[in-house]
Amino acid sequence: MTQLTDLAQGQHYPAGALYIVATPIGNVADITLRALHVLGLADRIAAEDTRNTAQLLARYGIAKPSIAVHEHNERSAAERVIEHLRNGERIACVSDAGTPGISDPGAKLVDAVRDAGFPVIPLPGASALTTALSAAGAWVQAFTFVGFLATKSKQRAAQLQAYAKQPAALVFYEAPHRIVETVRALVDALGGDRQLLIARELTKLHESLHRCTLAEGPTWLAGDANRQRGEFVLVVEGAPQQEDADDAHDALLAMLLEELSVSSAARLAATLTGASRNALYARALLLSKSAEE
Ligand code: SAM
Known about the structure:
Cobalt-precorrin-4 Transmethylase, domain 1, Methyltransferase, Cobalt-precorrin-4 Transmethylase, Domain 2, 3 domains, five-stranded parallel β-sheet, binds S-adenosylmethionine, rRNA (cytosine-2'-O-)-methyltransferase activity, S-adenosyl-L-methionine, EC 2.1.1.198, 4pyrrole_Mease_sub2
């Protein structure tokens, strides 16, 4: 442990820099050694809610002056932060939970500080986004982080329409009072067949991860009032990829069949095109039969 603490301390932490520090999304123990070191080193904390952050930092035995940087004052607060950076202070930016700038204040502060010529130094840590994705499974490869959808139904439907054909999985954040409505909207916009992961209360006492199809989502949520409580990440499978038309590789197969057996032609065509070997075999068989006739 001492060696690890030394590693956290061993890095250079320049003065006159903004440190973006991730804090836990539930379990207070989910904080990194470097985060604790930098929070201890910082002259000031730029916090989304200074009282929340003071309470959290007290759990780690840290007390620091703070500046409120929230959704409604981010630009003006950035000016104050920059003044402190000019005085050579190290400022740590934290949000109420997880990683600043991920559906949380922080991004405008980052822009302003970088534009003013000061370094912005990120410290990795908890985020509901990566925590949910880490337990999603292999059906999620590429993903698009959407965050919170619009609350008005028309706007939300238009947003979802724009994502409906994307092959990448979609990741949403949602609050308990809108979870049922949002899952229904997802079914309406994306159909019922796709996989859905409902990740609730991650890292907390009532954590649950439930995988089902989108069509099954509303019924599962309705099955127990507790399933609608807490904080949610929804991960939805991407749009199914369009299969190649049956005859997409006929010209290639016909050429290969002049020299090769049906199975060799199908194998080679599969290697060349990336299409399914079984589908190409069936097609090659058909082509060779019709050539014989
Ligand atoms: N910056 C945070 C992050 O890095 O994840 C997100 C902040 S955003 C204002 C809050 C939303 O994140 C919640 O409404 C919920 O959708 C999601 N969230 C945060 N903590 C969570 C948890 N423990 N379990 C599931 N979702 C969570």
